């Protein structure tokens, strides 16, 4: 596995120099999130502090209920923390106006979920071009761009299909193309392969990896599945609302090689 032992952060490529690679794109500081339902308070995040670098592919591992989705909602500007701060490109998300926050969600971050969340009555192409309309792209250009994105995810010939006519893997491909509609610099992927068989999941991860290496998109991907770890540059384990550990993939490979398989 010679190329797998390298770390993207140390590898300059066309997207930037080594110092660019270390640029922090998301900074979370002392993130806490409590949910209150009636008398019951759940501490979903208990003080998460992490820096994510531009252009890296980071996997977020952890058992169900450990706080992965809550963490994603905070760093994606979809929900606000009970305390702590999130900076995206060094801008404090909490300080943004509603318009600025909408811009961030529409243009800077693409979201991919476990359930593909496509609009059922729209074709694949319409699903992909809809966010472009919000992004201010003219219809003709949106169509060209949408077809290009569907080509990247391997679905150009199926642009007119509706979700019901597509397999889970194909729907997730459309969802990836849609997430890329406005050329975001960050893709937040919350268990994108959880509903897919291993082979199809692998294909989806290959597409994410391609977007990471070819377009320099920062990928943050939650998963239960440690088989996907060879895609990523770093792994972060969340347990009980806290970061248990963050490691470079190369180091984890060495550990696995010496101790055998790992638990989550
Ligand atoms: N909207 C919510 N209201 C109340 N509790 C929630 C809500 N979302 C998540 N939780 C709780 O917060 C904890 C973390 O959940 P979550 O972030 O979804 O974990 P994961 O994505 O790792 O499975 C769990 O105990 C979950 O039940
Ligand atoms: Mg989740």
Question: How are the secondary structure elements laid out?
Answer:
Blueprint: H1 18-21, E1 24-37, E2 40-53, E3 57-61, H2 68-75, E4 83-88, E5 91-92, H3 98-108, E6 109-112, H4 124-134, H5 139-152, H6 168-179, E7 186-190, H7 198-215, E8 218-223, E9 234-239, E10 242-248, H8 249-259
Parallel strand pairs: 3-8, 3-9, 6-7, 7-8
Antiparallel strand pairs: 1-2, 1-4, 4-5, 9-10
Helix pairs in contact: 4-5, 4-6, 5-6, 6-7
Bound molecules: adenosine-5'-diphosphate and magnesium ion.
What attributes characterize this protein structure?
single chain; 264 residues; alpha/beta; Rossmann fold; six-stranded mixed beta sheet; four-stranded antiparallel beta sheet; 8 helices; 10 strands; globular; disordered N terminus; binds adenosine-5'-diphosphate; binds magnesium ion
Instruction: Give the distinct bound molecules.
Output: adenosine-5'-diphosphate, magnesium ion
Tell me which CATH architecture applies here: 3-Layer(aba) Sandwich
Helix content range: 25-40%
Roughly how many Å is the radius of gyration?
A: 18 Å
Q: Give the number of helices.
A: 8
What is the domain tally? Answer: 1
How large is the share of residues in beta strands?
25-35%
Count the E strands: 10
> How are the strands of the largest sheet arranged?
6-7-8-3-9-10
């Amino acid at each position: 596995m010679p190329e797998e032992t390298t770390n993207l952060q140390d590898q300059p490529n066309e997207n930037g120099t080594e110092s660019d690679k270390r640029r922090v794109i998301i900074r979370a500081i002392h993130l806490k999130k409590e949910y209150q339902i009636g008398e019951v308070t759940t501490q979903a995040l208990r003080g998460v502090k992490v820096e994510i670098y531009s252009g890296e592919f980071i996997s977020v591992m952890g058992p169900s209920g450990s706080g992965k989705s809550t963490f994603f909602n905070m760093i994606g500007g979809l929900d606000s923390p009970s305390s702590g701060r999130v900076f995206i490109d060094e801008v404090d998300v909490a300080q943004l106006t509603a318009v600025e926050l909408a811009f961030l969600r529409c243009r800077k971050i693409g979201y991919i979920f476990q359930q593909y969340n496509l609009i059922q009555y729209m074709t694949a192409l319409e699903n992909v071009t809809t966010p472009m309309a919000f992004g201010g792209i003219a219809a003709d250009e949106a169509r060209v761009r949408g077809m290009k994105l569907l080509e990247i995810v391997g679905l150009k010939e199926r642009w007119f299909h509706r979700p019901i006519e597509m397999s889970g893997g194909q729907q997730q491909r459309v969802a990836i193309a849609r997430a890329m509609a406005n050329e975001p610099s960050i893709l937040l992927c919350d268990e994108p392969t959880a509903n897919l068989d291993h082979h199809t999941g692998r294909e989806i991860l290959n597409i994410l990896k391609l977007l990471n290496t070819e377009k320099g998109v920062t990928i943050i991907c939650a998963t239960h599945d440690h088989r996907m770890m060879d895609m990523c540059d770093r792994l972060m384990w969340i347990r009980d609302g806290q970061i248990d550990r963050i490691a470079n993939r190369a180091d984890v490979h060495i550990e696995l090689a010496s101790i055998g398989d790992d638990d989550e």
